[in-house]
Structures are given as structure tokens and as C-alpha cells.
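Q&A FORM
Asked by: J.P.
Topic: structure of SRPBCC domain-containing protein

PROVIDED:
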Amino acid sequence: MKKLQYKIDIKTSAKKAYNTMLGIDNKETYEEWTAIFNPTSTFEGNWEKGSKIYFVGTDENGKRGGMVSEIADNIPSKFISIRHYGILDGENEITSGPQVEKWAGGLENYSFEEHNGLTTITVETEADNEYLDYFETTWPKALDKLKELSEK
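REPLIED BY: S.T.
REPLY: Here is the structure written out as C-alpha cells.
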């Protein structure tokens, strides 16, 4: 696993950036910026600390899949940490075995720092080597989309 970090400055409050990123006021804002990863991206669950949450989408055959995760921490408008511990295969949760072992326990951390109307979002995540190129090109595009949505 390699640690990755991405940053973006957004001309808005930390509260608005946080709400837009997580789809707090409108789930569609979450779905719009995460569509860069998968056009059908959504989540099922909530963002409360300790909650189970599914990050789901459908593949090219229409099969539902995604990540089984837990909100490890959530300080609204400041920080959120997501711990991934399984995959969703259709309606089945898979939490052990070779598919999961590569990245189980991995965290995605998002920090929001506001200074004079500008919010810096820092994303820290881990990725298996086979996904590095994908993330290095996709994360910046997704954050650009988040910036566009947040600055509206």
C-alpha cells in the first residue's frame, strides 16, 4: 500500500465544502463529484461517527458493488475519516479473503482548513500499487469537480 495525498483550495467556507463533498444538504452533490470515479457512484448510510456506510455503484453489466466502510471519525466541517473493511458484491458483504486483504483497514481522511474565505481540502488515502496510476489521474479530476460544485 502506498500513501497518497491530494490538496485543493476552494473559494468557499469549510462548512459549504464539507456539506457539498458529503452531500449533506443534497446527496446529488456527492454523486456528481464521485461520478469521476464511477458514473453511478452513491452512498447508502450516513456520516455519523461509528456508522456503517456503503459506497456503491454499478459495473458495466449493471451489477451492484462497492465498499463496506465505517465512519471512523467525523468532526463536521473539519475532518472525516473513513475506514474500509469490506466489499459489496451484489447484496453480499465480503469482509475477509484475498479480495479484501489487500486494503482492509485502509483509511481515507479528509481535512478542511478555512482561512479568509478559502478552504483547503486535504485528502489522504492508501492505494494498492495496481491502482496508483488510476488514482493519480482520477483524484485530481474529482477534486476539480468538487471545487466547481462548492464554488457555485
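FOLLOW-UP: DSSP finds four helices and eight strands in the chain.
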